[in-house]
Specification:
9 helices; 40% helix
């Protein structure tokens, strides 16, 4: 896709979520897309390779949480994969400080390449299982916001995210459709971990019938030191 068509589509879909891009941001998103496609031929980063779908389902989808993030705050993107939602947020929001966490070193190498090529500041990567990251005293209960996109069901995800959000901070869980059962099943786990569901925002991606949910969890008290449990256990034995 040429850059003129790319910018046209970015502006078209961005308008649907009340976002207006400047030329510098659009140039960075274009370079990001091309790096993603280039690296995807070597390592599995995304199953989505159509340029318009990358714009809508990766870039714009990532930016749907922008309105929930205050200025000059810190955010950890857990299980970031190819950098979603953390890198699109950083491109659009130079004021926020972003930490990208992923367990696969190849993906971290890709993220570092994107950060370098796009000359992004106040963004760092961390190669770690999220359970180990949550035990790290430097990062535990240290972030204003913690987010994840399509990582795990809500009971498991809560144990990944809540321990690294500071008290008074928020977890922003990016989910697909039909979250009612997850919300019901995870209610006790969220409480045990020191969180409380604030609200659920259901919407469709712009000019599509793709349903999404954003679940906001407030961190209302400190998380017990035993959480998160050792790597692999939250997914194997979710809190109930």
């Amino acid at each position: 896709m040429d850059i003129v068509k790319f910018k046209e589509l970015m502006c078209y879909y961005g308008k649907g979520i009340d976002i207006v891009f400047n030329d510098e941001q659009l140039d960075k998103f274009y370079r990001y897309m091309n790096l993603l496609l280039e690296w995807n031929e070597k390592i599995n980063l995304t199953a989505i390779t159509d340029c318009e779908e990358i714009i809508l389902k990766h870039f714009v989808d990532s930016l749907t949480i922008n309105k929930f993030i205050d200025k000059n705050t810190t955010i950890a993107d857990v299980g970031t994969g190819a950098g979603f939602p953390g890198i699109p947020l950083k491109i659009y929001r130079p004021d926020i400080n972003v930490t990208l966490v992923d367990s696969l070193n190849k993906r971290v190498n890709f993220l570092n390449e994107v950060i370098s090529e796009l000359e992004l500041n106040n963004i760092s990567t961390f190669h770690s299982r999220i359970e180990d990251f949550g035990k790290n005293k430097k990062y535990r209960e240290n972030f204003d916001y913690v987010t994840a996109r399509a990582v795990a069901n809500l009971s498991v995800l809560s144990e990944y995210l809540i321990p690294i959000a500071k008290v008074g901070g928020k977890c922003i869980c990016m989910k697909g459709s039909n979250v009612d059962e997850e919300l019901s099943d995870s209610k006790n786990a969220i409480s045990i971990l020191g969180g409380k569901v604030n609200f659920v925002h259901e919407f469709e991606l712009p000019n599509s019938d793709i349903l999404r949910n954003i679940i906001i969890i407030d961190k209302i008290k400190n998380t017990c030191d035993k959480y998160p449990r050792k790597a692999g256990l939250p997914a194997k034995e979710p809190l109930k």
